[in-house]
Amino acid sequence: MVKENSNKRLVLSAFVFLLWIIFCWQGFVTVVNVWWGNEIFNHGFFILPGVIYLIYLKRSALLAQPFETSWLSLFFIVPTVLLYVVGVAGDVQLFMHAATFALFPLLVWMLIGTRAALTIFFPLCFTLFSVPVGEQLIPYLQEIAADGSVWLLKLTGVPLFRSGLYIEIPQGRFLVAEACSGVSFFIASVVIGSLYSYLNFRSAKRRIIFVFISLIFPIVANVIRVYGIILIAYWTDMEYAAGADHLIYGWFFFALVILFLLGIGELMRESGVEWESAPQQPSSVWKVNLFPIVSVIALLVASKVWVNTIRHVAPAHASASYSYYKAGESCESGEIALGPIFNNPSETRKSFRLLNGGCMVTVYEAWFSGVDNELISDLNRPYDQQKWSLVSTSVQSVYSEGLNSNLPVYTVTTPNGKEAKYTLWYEIGEHVFSSKVDAKLYETMNALMGHREAGKLVIIALPVHENIDQAIMDFQ
Fold it and tell me: Which letter, b or e, does each residue of 5-14 get, where b requires 16 or more Cβ atoms within 10 Å of its Cβ?
């Protein structure tokens, strides 16, 4: 009888996790695309197998605990499911991915109870490293790498000129590009550092210190890497550390960083500590409370129906935004060639505006119907990052017909020192937004209520000495 009840509980648990996979299918598909297509997150393929292995290592202590379904977990499962629905509605992949991999440990907690879940607390939390997050740190890491390397170069007497993320020495010019941000080093270091601290330390203090080291160490190491590459180029008159050389050096340096990090861990490692306690007598107790399980099943089924409804809502007035385009003077003198990159837009248009007697204003417009494209997306970039580098950001109040807002103003520069500035805003139906967050929230709320609208992204670029207010009024 005990074995029969145990089998029924295992079948019930398997059914719950099958529902999890079905409910989060869109999250799984998109996250695998990210893991496969972005080398920064290739480690994502190994996280869930690693979690299962870590749980297996703790099997003796886990099976010694009484299993009891937890109703307390519902207070966390419900908002997590809603987060996933919001992610689908707003096409916010971060929300979808975070909810997908947060649901796994929460469902385990619900099925086995608090005491048993605490036994495998780290493996369950380790699941969250599956979420491909961290690219948002790239601009900050680029700035840190540029600032730190420039400081070290000046300290060692290397003459240089810096403009944004461009660093120029007498022998040549370097760009601290996204690949030089060290974000891959940073994420890998945090994952490896967290795993190492769990497997090798018992003291909470040592674990916290080592994780902190794994956060700081790759940032400092990347500054030294960028500095070393430029210094080698300076010493060798660009014979070395130019072209693809610095990428090759980067991978060797990355391996060295990980070895140093593990070396620090070995120095901190506690002696005479057994990783796993002796096998304990398995417990045959598994108290099943059907209320949490039935509630979760009903929640996942109802939310799946809601998600399918949201996904199949067609955009209303898909071409409405096209009518907002206002033709103006066309000429190509004085063009600010930002070269924006739009991800699969429905339509794009570039035009020029007269300002102070010349065509000094370049206007880029991109329409997004919401069918196989997205207005608010990190894949839509306002300038070509291979040709321009961000120097500064400011905010300017603009009051004109149809646009009363505080607009962001970005100053960018080219490798040869040419500077320009641009501003942008979003138009969704009859609404205008200067904030990407506000526009995304508006789109998400509409989608949750079963309504979608087409949108347009407007970018206005002009020389740094020209007046943005005047340019916008001419555009309006």
Answer: eeeebeeebe
Q: Are 365 and 349 in contact (CB under 8 A)?
A: yes
Report which of 171, 210, 218, 174 is spatially closest to residue 194, judged by C-alpha positions.
210
Contacts of 116 (CB under 8 A, 6+ apart): 62, 65, 66, 67, 68
How far apart (Å, rounded) are the C-alpha atoms in residues 217 and 264?
Answer: 10
**Beta partners for residue 263, in sequence order:** none
Q: Are strands 403-413 and 419-428 parallel, antiparallel or unpaired?
A: antiparallel
Helix ranges (H only) for 333-467 are 436-448
CB atoms within 10 A of CB 71: 14
Flag whether pLDDT at 271 surpasses 70: no
Residue type, 219: I
In whole angstroms, what is the distance from residue 252 CA to residue 209 CA? 26
Name which of 45, 51, 26 is nearest 108 in CA terms: 51
Cα four-point dihedral sign 258, 264, 268, 272: positive
pLDDT level of residue 105 (50, 70, 90 thresholds): very high
**Beta bridge mates, 167:** 162, 174
Using an 8 Å Cβ cutoff, are 117 and 104 in contact? no
Q: Which residues have CB under 8 Å from 263's CB, separation 6+?
A: none
Tell me the whole-structure pTM to 2 decimals.
0.79
Calculate what percentage of the chain has a pLDDT beyond 70. Answer: 82
Residue 165 CA to residue 145 CA, distance in Å, equals 9
290: left (phi over 0), alpha (psi -120 to 50) or beta: alpha
SS (H, E, C) 152-171: HHHHCCCCCEEECCEEEECC
- CA geometry: angle 282, 286, 291, nearest 5 deg: 160
Cα 41–chain centre separation: 10
CA distances from 86 to 32, 33, 46, 93, 445 (A): 20, 20, 27, 10, 8
Give the max Cα distance, the chain: 91
Average pLDDT value for residue range 215-227: 89
Res 327: pLDDT: 40
What Cα–Cα distance (Å) separates residue 77 from each residue in 47, 83, 301, 338? Answer: 21, 10, 14, 45
Residue-wise pLDDT tens digits, 275-295: 555 555 555 567 777 888 889
Position with higher pLDDT, 4 vs 189:
189
On whether the CB atoms of residues 354 and 474 are closer than 8 A, the answer is yes
